[in-house]
Write a structure and sequence with these properties.
single chain, 4 helices, elongated, 118 residues, mainly alpha
Length: 118
């Protein structure tokens, strides 16, 4: 032997020393891969401007601006866009006729029925 009284103790001590040294190595931990990160998508165009105005006309103009933006971004299909355009036209007619509350209610209903916050 090499001067050690118990070879099993010696082997265990060497194994523990190697194992502890491996735990304390300066190797970096796992890194997140950018290849799996989803690409950010732009929901609005940079030139989106929401208009102001009288209560019913401002609501209608804002709803139309949101739709113009979403259509341009490809987020609204043609049939839905036509449906919303009809709803906006109805609200506009009510607004022009002086039925402010009705027009504003029509805009709220249109927004809700298409999943937009009102």
């Amino acid at each position: 032997m090499t001067g050690h009284s118990n070879p099993i103790r010696f082997f265990t001590a060497v194994t523990l020393t190697v194992a502890l040294a491996a735990c304390n190595s300066a190797a970096p931990g796992p890194q997140a891969s950018a290849a799996y990160a989803p690409a950010p998508q732009r929901a609005t165009h940079a030139d989106l401007q929401l208009p102001a105005g009288t209560p019913c006309s401002a609501d209608i103009q804002r709803w139309q601006a949101v739709q113009d933006n979403d259509i341009a971004a490809g987020q609204v299909g043609d049939s839905v866009a036509r449906q919303i355009a009809g709803e906006i036209a109805g609200a506009s007619a009510a607004c022009r006729a002086g039925r402010d509350a009705e027009a504003r209610s029509m805009v709220v209903q249109s927004r809700r029925s298409h999943g937009y916050p009102s």
